[in-house]
Amino acid sequence: MEHKNHLTKEKIVDVKKLGAIIQKNFTVIIRDKSRIIPLILFPVFMILIFGYTSGNTPKHIPTAIIPYDNSPLSQKIQQEISNSQILTVKRILSTEGEGRKLLDTGKIKVLVEIPPNLGQKIENGEQAGIIVIVDESDSSVATTAKQALISITSGLSKDISTEKIANFQKSVDLASQKLQDYSSQYVNKYALIFSKAKNAESSLDEADKKISQQASSIENSLDAPSPVVAREVKPNESSSFNQTYLPETPAYLAAKGQAASLRQSSALIQDAKENVHSAGTISREEDEKINSIQSYQFQKNNVAEPVNKIKDFTDYGAGSLLKPLTYEEKPAYGTGKRNIDFLIPSIIALTIFQGAVMGMGRAVAGEKKDGSLTRVFLTPTSNVTIILGTLLFYIVFEIFRSSFLILLAMNLFQIKIEGSLIAVFLVVVIYAGVSTAIGMLLSSIVKSEQQYMAMSMLVSMPTVFLGGAFFPVQAMPKFLQAVAAFLPVTYAGDALRGVMIKGFSLITISYEIFILMLFLALTVGAVFLVFKRDIE
Amino acid sequence: MKSILETKGLTKKFGTLTAVNGIDLQVKEGEIFGFLGPNGAGKTTTISMLTTLVKPTSGTALVADYDLVKDASYVRSIIGVVPQSFSLFPELTAEENLEYIGKLYGMKSSVIRERITQLLKTVALYEHRNRISGAFSSGMKQRLSIAASIMSNPKVLFMDEPTTGLDPQSRIAIRELTKSLNKSGITIFYTTHDMEEAEKLCNRIAIMDKGNIIALGTSAEIKQMVKVDHTVEVELENPSKEIVSELRKMPFVSSVHQDNKILNIKVTQKEKIFFRLSDFFSRKKQKVLEIKVKEHSLEDIFIHLTKKDLRD
């Protein structure tokens, strides 16, 4: 008999079976709460953090100013810094020492020094500038603060140089105007003298003509057929006179005398004209000389200013014109600190936490699940012993792990520890204790390692993102900053940075140590309360 | 005989669920006490309470006259527990596991050394003492687990389904080990699903169901306590329908099931059954090939007592 059944033949894509698989996965995922938590929480957290950190630049960075100079420019600089959204002036100080103390304690992140005679130097055309000390611990805060100050100084610098160039332009304009006025003034004078001389010349010409005419008409009438005045012809006289031979009457003789005197006058006028002409020429020549002498004098007097300015620029370099106000950085701690130097302490703090938290999943929840912890519970061993034993191991383990990390960083990236190694290890020990206790606390609450992984996300995510290793806490909204204040990593990071980079002593980081100790006491106390022998 | 373990009204509630409902038990010193019950009956909760892992909601329990709650630490030092699962450190070797447990019992190093050698030889793992225990077979792991649980030389050893999931050879080995431990003077509190095992191994048995002890005694006592039909298997040369229906009418027969030539007859009385049936068949001129009277197994009792229904 042929075998028959109700099963359908296998298809490559079976829609009904696809549906069944999808439905099953959906049911599985919504029932598995330990997966739902990270699945939903993680992206929410990521969006929150990235949204707030990449969109926002740090704001209200605490700043202090040391104004050694009290010029209007110095006040302007202070005003600009106060007006900045990014910087908030917390203090006006009188010495750098005070400022460095505030930097050390983290009360301010930026210290701006306005050196003595800044205004005067700029006024003199020298290049001078502000000196800035920035706490580099938080690279993004430092970068933002520097950018803000660079933009303020270059803005002011631009204003100053624009003003200077404008003044220069003005004085050049004025000089050229004066030059023009002056030269035109003298050209006019010259023209006046010249034209007056010309006028005098032509007037004399006119007078000469008239006198000559008069003389001619008198002379003509003497020789006419019916002369007004007859003359006496002398035997040695010329032919023309010979033609009209008239007796030389007294009247004739008088007219003849008058004509002669007119001719004499004309000759005198000719002489005068000649003299006026040469006087005009001379005066013109003289004027030109004076003109050139005086214009040189003017140059000396009026063009001197721009010339001096040009000299200033050549003396102090073009920079003093284009960038009179400068921005100069002074290292806050030691010299040559790089980003990695500031990153390493945060990374150490982060890895201690992550390592401890990860390890504790197996330590309690895992051992609880696989029964090995039960085996321990079955022995006459007290909770205190079990808890302390576990904590102590992980603390020691973390010390070795972070020592290795520090050594690695020191060798690979030439990290130098400025402060004491003992202080570093004290922080590492306490922080490892806190981290282990937090892990143990969570591990004691949950029932399995998987649940633990989900739960540990709740603490490790804020620690990673709000710990300041990757994202600037300063750039985050107030509520996230408040969350950061409740994270041990914040204090451990600060303390480690303080010792490793800033060379802080134990006393300087005593506040962080105190807070970490408080965390340790609270978390270990909580572990003792929560760690139950009851297997339920 | 003196009882080494005694509970009075021992109760454990998880929220509204009563897992263990006021049980009274006495385990005598030196016996193997079988603790039976279907899944979810409350066996593990009871064992957890008796081994100080779970605090009772009410009631008391004494182990060697020490209170489980008040003297938990002392009780822990005189009991040993073989948990259901492996529950040792898979990353450690056999020897390291035992050493760790020994230290947690507060034993001296020299004593631990001696005891490890002795125990590993007892459980036949001495040759594997330096192997990582995580790589052991299930049977080896269970033997190591037993060795760990008797490190401190306990007075009472609780074994929670120690043979579950093991192959027959391993099961036999564990049973033999249990017997020899018992012979060495350890009282054994033995939980199992395997009725046959309980019957073979245990001096006395308690059957637990839905948080209550529903039967307690030797296996014979329990069998007697319970009125269950006995089964008689009769093979006839040629059974007719009339014979079957007449058989059903007989007063001591409760049911008859025919399977070809074989009749499975449930009878309410076992007494003289052989005679009664052979008499009946000879009167009916039936040729009887074989009559087998089946003994009550503890399994029948168990199924009968716990009403067959599947448990969570």
Structural class of chain A: mainly alpha
Which whole number gives the mean pLDDT of chain B?
87
Number of strands of chain B: 14
Look at the structure and give the mean pLDDT of chain A: 80
Number of strands of chain A: 5
State the secondary-structure class of chain B. Answer: alpha/beta
Biggest sheet layout of chain B: 6 strands, mixed
Keywords:
heterodimer, A: 536 residues, mainly alpha, elongated, B: 312 residues, alpha/beta, six-stranded mixed sheet, four-stranded antiparallel sheet, 11 helices
Layout of helices and strands:
The complex is a heterodimer of chains A (536) and B (312).
Chain A: H1 15-31, H2 33-55, E1 61-67, H3 72-83, E2 87-92, H4 96-105, E3 110-114, H5 118-123, E4 128-134, H6 139-223, H7 239-243, H8 250-316, H9 318-322, E5 325-330, H10 339-370, H11 372-377, H12 383-412, H13 421-445, H14 449-466, H15 478-485, H16 488-500, H17 510-530
Parallel strand pairs in A: 1-2, 1-3, 4-5
Antiparallel strand pairs in A: 3-4
Helix pairs in contact in A: 2-14, 3-6, 6-8, 10-12, 10-13, 10-14, 10-16, 12-13, 13-14, 13-16, 13-17, 16-17
Chain B: E1 3-14, E2 17-28, E3 32-36, H1 43-50, E4 58-63, E5 66-67, H2 72-78, E6 79-82, H3 94-104, H4 109-122, H5 138-149, E7 156-160, H6 168-183, E8 187-192, H7 195-201, E9 204-209, E10 212-217, H8 219-225, E11 230-236, H9 241-249, E12 253-259, E13 262-267, H10 273-283, E14 288-293, H11 298-305
Parallel strand pairs in B: 3-8, 3-9, 6-7, 7-8
Antiparallel strand pairs in B: 1-2, 1-4, 4-5, 9-10, 11-13, 11-14, 12-13
Helix pairs in contact in B: 3-4, 3-5
Explain how this protein is built.
- The complex is a heterodimer of chains A (536) and B (312).
- Chain A is built from 17 helices and five strands.
- By secondary structure, chain A is mainly α.
- A five-stranded mixed sheet of chain A has the order 2-1-3-4-5, sandwiched between helices.
- Chain A is elongated, with a radius of gyration of 53 Å.
- With 312 residues, chain B is an alpha/beta fold.
- In chain B, the strands form three sheets. Chain B has a six-stranded mixed sheet, with helices on both faces. In chain B, strands 2-1-4-5 form a four-stranded antiparallel sheet, covered by helices on one side.
- Chain B starts with a strand and ends in a 7-residue tail after the last helix.
- Classes of the chains: A mainly alpha (536), B alpha/beta (312).
- Chains A and B meet through α11 of A and α2 and β6 of B.
